[in-house]
Amino acid sequence: MKRNGLVALLAGATLSVGGCIVPYYADQSGGSDPNSYTPSTPSTPSTPSTPNTPSTPSPSSGKTITLYPSDDAYTSTLSPEKNYGSGGTLNTGKVNFGAGRDDYYTAFIKFNVGSIPRGATITDAELLLTTAFNNTDLKPIGTTTLSYVNDQSWNEGSLTWLNSPSSGIYIAARQIKFDVASSVEFDVTTAVNRWVSGSTTNCGFMLSTRNLANVNNNAYAPFYSSELGTGSGPRLEVTYKN
């Protein structure tokens, strides 16, 4: 039907605009010009928001403490009744004095781990030692072995070769050069875990060194003792979680 000389399209009709079929609704009040129709731009559906991924809490790195020896000393086979608990070194290895006189040294170190809560999980424990400068011709490359000790009753004030405890099971070994002062580490995580949990009695560590290559088959291998202070003496660094 005609209105004002124009063709009014019925409501619900469609109109081709730019090649696209779009709905068109006549203006019932008149004055609607189909040629002037501008289709509305359909709104772009919003992208659904990505739900927040729950953050995974990073595991605690734990607490790290440094312990110093409660006792440390060494023994000598040629001086079986002598105590070396007040000396500045922890001697290990062997020295040949000629005529079949070999002196064997063994060192003992004990730490009190009572400050670590019972039941804590030990994530890392390192025994840190410093080799004492060996200014003689006895500058070996030796293998130092760390072992458990079988008796907790020893102390640095009374330890001698005659009353020294026997060694327990092997813990670790390191090849060490004793010609200059240097720091060495032994991983003792399992040992400290056992002590803290109570599954093994804390009797300390035993250190012994055997020669690999040196003149006269000597392996004099000293470490600094706790008498030299916290900077050079043995220390135990433990990281644990409750």
Explained architecture:
The chain is mainly β and 242 residues long. Helices cover 4% and strands 41% of the residues. It contains one helix and 15 strands. Strands 6, 7, 8, 10, 11, 13 and 14 form a seven-stranded antiparallel sheet that branches. A hairpin with a 5-residue loop joins strand 7 and strand 8 (102-110). The chain is globular and about 55 Å long. The chain starts with a strand and ends with a strand.
Write the layout of secondary structure elements.
Blueprint: E1 2-3, E2 6-7, E3 13-17, E4 20-24, E5 63-67, E6 71-76, E7 89-96, E8 102-110, E9 121-130, E10 141-149, E11 167-177, E12 183-187, H1 189-197, E13 205-213, E14 219-224, E15 235-241
Antiparallel strand pairs: 1-2, 3-4, 5-15, 6-8, 7-8, 7-14, 8-13, 9-12, 9-15, 10-11, 10-13
Element-by-element helix/strand order:
EEEEEEEEEEEEHEEE
Number of strands: 15
Overall average pLDDT: 78
> Please, what is the oligomeric state?
single chain
Based on Cα principal axes, name the global outline: globular
Termini separation: 89 Å
- pLDDT under 50 segments (min length 5)? 1-39, 53-58
Sketch the major β-sheet: 7 strands, antiparallel
- Rg over alpha carbons: 41 Å
Indicate the percent of residues in helices: under 10%
Kindly estimate the percentage of residues that lie in beta strands according to DSSP: 35-45%
Going by helix content, strand content and strand pairing, the class is mainly beta
Number of helices: 1
